[in-house]
Amino acid sequence: MSAPQKPRLVLVLGDQLTPNVAALKAADKARDVVVMAEVAAETDYVPHHPKKIAFIFAAMRKFAEALEKDGWRVRYTALDADDPVASIPEALLAAAQAESASAVIATRPGEWRLIEALQEMPLDLQMLEDDRFICAQSRFAAWADGRKSLRMEYFYREMRRETGLLMEGDKPVGGKWNFDHDNRKPAKPDMFRQGPKRFAPDAATRAVLDLVNERFSGNFGSLEDFWFATDAQQAEEALAHFLTHGLPGFGETQDAMLTGDPFLNHAMIGLYLNVGLLDPLAVCRAAEREYSAGRAPLNSVEGFIRQILGWREFVRGVYFLEGPGYVARNVLGQGGDLPAAYWGGETQMACLKAAVAQTEREAYAHHIQRLMVTGNFALLAGVDPAQVHEWYLAVYADAFEWVEAPNTLGMSQFADGGVVGSKPYVSSGAYIDRMSDYCKGCAYDVKAKKGEGACPFNLLYWHFLNRHRERFAGNPRMGQMYRTWDRMDDAHCAQVLEEGDALLARLAAGEVV
Ligand code: DLZ
Ligand code: SF4
User: Is this model's pTM higher than 0.90 or not?
Assistant: First the structure.
């Protein structure tokens, strides 16, 4: 009889919580040991929102329990264990010693920092591609190869063709690939809008909430009223709830912002997708069924599917294609500090206040609040993109670097020089006024372009375009903006720039704006 084979260590990270993750699929229940750990290195690389930490820990603990029920042997180290471990490599080294093991099977983490830390361990590491995505990384690289620029829209069309989602033969259903034109309406308060499904914390989650409260109450973000799904079954319920109640009206108002209604018809499933509680292709197919059955209109379903099949897959491809240096990019050379208002400090700007207050409460803001309020303002105000990146990575429950960095540094801050977006997403206050009810209650006047009470977005929009003229004037998508600026009278322009300078100086001095 041959000696039993040595166990291998199967690493499962806090955002790899599915039996379909590559490392588990490659492992042998009868032989191998799953390693999971709550560690300070992961809780502290940015000051995560307490609700995000609680969500991840609760989902990790419940997933570990499910694995054990399913016959796996799991070595789980809690943050408050008697013999805690400080980092993922340390957890693996401790497990290697205890189990007399030297081989590790891991699924590639979603962050270069952790990939490199694993590669540096003195253990025999097999790192498998994370195949929980619709588009394999090699497929993305082949698509990107030789292209002068990468545009999500073209990638998305290929993904539609390859998956057959919303296709009639080789034509897009409805004759168009993209129905965003119908999806730019402002929203009105609606008592019957349901919002996402909420779950009362179970015993495992309550224990985590106590721990997080004890250890992380100093972090930005409220832990009160925790309602996220924390296992796959609950996440499925949250999805089903959205498909019935949210999806039909999702499209029309997907870009709208309303004080007091943080969710509108948004799905709030990004966090579940990103930790593995939901599968992206299954989610797209479920949404497509709602269209086929006549329960949701095409503009909603196409817009929703594009976020997952197009945008989410695209940014993941970009993150891994661009390599570890991506997060340090700053092509516009912006160097200001993130205003204290982003961490809950005072501000007179109603839109910024609302987006940050909601983030503080929910660890969530929707794409337009992120892109056109907090992102737009940071870009206009000349903030160092690395600080903006760390803020988004910390405060949103759905934020992991592979998805957050291309969205923040690329799409929102243009720090990558146009890999992700073809132009910077900047706007004056008029856009926010059109899409929200924020301006009505603001100390600033959105109609004022300069002078007393002028909306900071109005001043800084032109200031930004002017200070980056050399880079952007030749951009075909921005020429119109420069022509408009050039037609304004010189005295007006000079005053706008002077007041913009003064505003930036006040921000730099840490004054409340
Ligand atoms: C975000 C996070 C946090 C806060 N804590 C842990 C943890 O204690 N243990 C763990 O395995 N994963 C955690 N994560 C998720 C990781 O940071 C994530 O896997 C990497 O950033 C790669 O996406
Ligand atoms: Fe925001 Fe300007 Fe509107 Fe105030 S007036 S809410 S600062 S856009």
Answer: yes
